[in-house]
């Protein structure tokens, strides 16, 4: 089985473009052009140069010595937390802003949950001098004040999404409605491997720089270009898609996806989509999503704002269904404890999203000679308030 | 013959009304249908509420959310509509997003529609090509029409494809917008309506989105077989209540 997208935009049973006719021309324009644009030598050069000189790539592949010793295995961290703006998100926004420019777009819209993707979008819009509007749930605006301030400082307009549950899924709905209302001049920069085809594939390709670098970094460090295990947290799944991308069809590599169990899978307050979701349509994509028996989309919960998306990217839904990847889910408490552990054992304060991934070390055994690569997808600065509250720091 | 086809054979301009089932109150569906028929409405689109209606503006989002809060579900709507054909003779169309239909089961959904006497379905987020490939045979088997939307941005080739694959009518979205946008029809719209008229489609066209009063209704009727009113009707319903539905329809038709 091939785990990449097929020519119709599907990953196995999942994906496609279930969009209103009003969006068809926009999505079609993107579908017809994204591969062509990405293959242009000038585009590649501009993308690579910005990733190097602006984002700070390549990011290190760091051998976590103390952690490896404690778990008696070989643990590497791919340091996406060292990217400009503090997470992997910017790899995608750099790619998409360059696509938008080549399509002649003069206005950018984006959705954001915790604000990381909003900040990464506002950043590249400032870099290019393009108008930027970020939709954010009214509740999230209250919860994530520092990121709202960052976006404003970068010159973006932050528009509250007041519909539905007033969080990420509603911000996404509002961004899509904006795109319907502005079909000609606007490009919508989606922040994860979700949405209608070609978004999941386009975003995965821009994030694939993560596993592309791991290949030569591991070759240098270990004398082979693949690990035994790849581990990442999954909300929509963009950092995971980037980590897995070049190993999707390499069966020597075991893939582990870590979802947020929230207060527990059966608690009614969870974001573990693979465990709780059913096949359906969300934001134009056929995938697994959390919903009522009547097909109404439900509100997920996780202490980490970046993981509480009610769906999951179609690539990941397929990795789950085909059993190519192991899916595990980690409750709030264990993730928070790992935030502290990683800080005190390796001197790295991770985003709470990222901290979920490390809890895999407590769930399953790894051999002493096995090589594990974690995606250290984001840094914890944005989560300090939550850490302070939780640990009474 | 499908009631929608019968209706379009009548030599008149059509007025079609959309409302969200279960709004303002859970059990208003049938009383509203009866009043619309009495008021002389030609066709009704019954909205199946969805938590995340991508193509809808604030009015229909709000009525849809309220309907869900009131307890509306797919099963509930079907049970309300059971036996409706004893009273309602005009064409009835269900309009809703694809996810709730998927969860109900598409085959079961179509079969219930056929039993009840639903004439067609509009699913804004089910693209025509996916329908054609995967679901058309099923819809045909149950005698259900599937109507598609076109917009000023839809290419001529795609409009012709939609014309070939669909039945009943083509839903012409008046401008690039979600539902409920306040608009007067300017030159851009008129040119678009005229461009579509010159394509000589086999399927009749009806204009929707942005029809809110007699003026926009008349323009729509000049340029197509009729008009669909949704958000303006829901706003009226909320403000004035269902007793005055007749006067709303009169204010539109003049």
Q: Sheet with the most strands of chain A? A: 6 strands, mixed
What class do helices, strands and sheet pairing of chain A give?
alpha/beta
Number of helices of chain A: 17
Order of strands side by side in the largest beta sheet of chain A? 3-4-14-9-10-13
What is the count of β-strands of chain B? 9
Oligomer: heterodimer
Instruction: Give the overall shape of chain B.
Output: globular
pLDDT < 50 runs, ≥5 residues of chain B:
none
Biggest sheet record of chain B: 9 strands, parallel
Mean pLDDT of chain B, as a whole number? 96
Tally of separate helices of chain B:
13
Question: Shape of chain A from CA axes?
Answer: globular
Cα Rg of chain A: 19 Å
What's the alpha carbon Rg of chain B, rounded to whole Å?
17 Å
Q: Hey, which two chains have the biggest interface?
A: A-B, 35 and 41 residues
- Strand arrangement, major sheet of chain B: 5-4-3-2-1-9-8-7-6
Measure the end-to-end span of chain A. Answer: 49 Å
Please describe what this structure looks like.
The complex is a heterodimer of chains A (393) and B (254). Helices cover 43% and strands 18% of the residues of chain A. Chain A has 393 residues and is an alpha/beta fold. A six-stranded mixed β-sheet of chain A has the order 3-4-14-9-10-13, with helices on both faces. In chain A, α11 links the parallel β9 and β10. The N and C termini of chain A lie far apart (49 Å). In chain B, 47% of the residues lie in helices and 15% in strands. Chain B is built from 13 helices and nine strands. The two termini of chain B are 31 Å apart. Classes of the chains: A alpha/beta (393), B alpha/beta (254).
Q: How would you describe this structure in keywords?
A:
heterodimer, A: 393 residues, alpha/beta, six-stranded mixed beta sheet, four-stranded parallel beta sheet, 17 helices, 18% strand, B: 254 residues, nine-stranded parallel beta sheet, 9 strands, globular
